[in-house]
Design goal:
This protein has about 160 residues and is mainly alpha-helical. It contains 7 helices and 2 strands; from the N terminus they run ααααββααα. The protein has a two-stranded antiparallel sheet with strand order 1-2.
């Protein structure tokens, strides 16, 4: 089994490296949220996204131009959602339900969901833009929360 995985990664092209980078960054980010903002549950450990979203000022406030552009992109042109129409799984336009950090995090989770579960082949320019914006947003959140930053670095083996 290991040799199949190794073979796949030998063939990874530059465009797939960005997707892989996003997947790793999102996994570390969600791990950091689970460690610093655990959802109240006695059985399942998961991140309390809502508590995290409310814990910080809106990420768009005082954001760098690059981060502001990433936020604007994912909020004004949000990632599509997979739905079933006429017995087929298709991507459909869907507005974000929240505002501020809630909308930004919802878009971020959709990017992740589409990459993990969405059958994103072929990888389009739009996908690349969403991944790049998502990476910028994760970086922004990690930089803006010392608690999350510490857990992120610990999860990555940097502490």
């Amino acid at each position: 089994m290991r040799s199949i995985i190794d073979e796949v990664f030998k063939r990874v092209q530059k465009r797939e490296l960005e997707r892989l980078k996003f997947c790793v960054a999102f996994a570390l980010f969600e791990h950091a949220l689970k460690e610093t903002f655990p959802a109240p549950s006695k059985r399942v450990a998961r991140a309390n996204w809502e508590a995290f979203e409310k814990s910080l000022p809106d990420l768009a406030e005082n954001a760098s131009p690059k981060l502001q552009g990433a936020i604007s992109y994912v909020c004004n042109e949000p990632p599509k959602k997979q739905c079933v129409q006429n017995g087929r799984v298709v991507f459909t336009k869907a507005t974000l339900t929240g505002t501020g950090n809630a909308a930004i995090c919802e878009a971020l989770r959709r990017i992740r969901n589409n990459l993990f579960h969405g059958g994103k082949q072929p990888y389009t320019d739009r996908d690349r833009q969403l991944v790049e914006a998502g990476l910028e947003i994760i970086e922004g959140y990690v930089q803006n929360s010392r608690r999350v930053q510490g857990a992120f670095k610990h999860g990555a083996g940097l502490l």
